[in-house]
Amino acid sequence: MTKHAGGRPSEYKKEYITKVDEYLESRQDEVFEFHKTRGVKSDGYDRKVNVKLPTIEGFAIFINVSKKTLYNWRDENPKFLHALEKIEVEQKRRLLDSGLSGDYNSTIAKLILSSNHGMTEKTDITTGGEPMGVVMLPTKK
After folding, report:
1. Helix (H, G, I), strand (E, B) or coil at 47
2. 15-117 under CATH 3.40.50.1370, yes or no
3. Which is more confidently placed, 65 or 46?
4. Distance between CA 141 and CA 89 in Å, rounded?
5. The pLDDT of residue 88
6. E strands along 1-141, which residues?
7. Hey, which residues does 37 pair with through a beta bridge?
8. CA 29 to CA 31: how far, in whole Å?
9. How far apart are alpha carbons 2 and 45 in whole angstroms?
10. What's the angle, vertex CA 22, arms to CA 99 and CA 78, rounded to 5?
11. DSSP-assigned states of every residue in 87-116
């Protein structure tokens, strides 16, 4: 156990690395398909996704510690860092895949991808949105 200045010893356990896998398994989306009807006639089937997006905060709750504690352990333990990265990678994959398929709300997916994963829209600020002309540069002979 590692002692922190002015605090009690860390309660980090190696088993938390495998707890990440348990957490990810518990955070699988649930898909419900149902028969939708209008009056007497059937219009077909519809589906609803109960989203269970994995988060670092959710994992902290899963193992009953604070998010700050997780980040402290991450900084002290490279193997734990790798385990937490699995949560981030899974979150990004699901936001991209399910955002594109329409299973997730695209606005929320975009927000989380930009704030948690550094993905942003690129804006052309040099031409004011107008097409750029071709610029020919002289070649050296």
Report:
1. strand
2. no
3. 65
4. 49
5. 97
6. 30-38, 41-50
7. 42
8. 6
9. 55
10. 90
11. HHHHHHHHHHHHHHHTSS-HHHHHHHHHHH
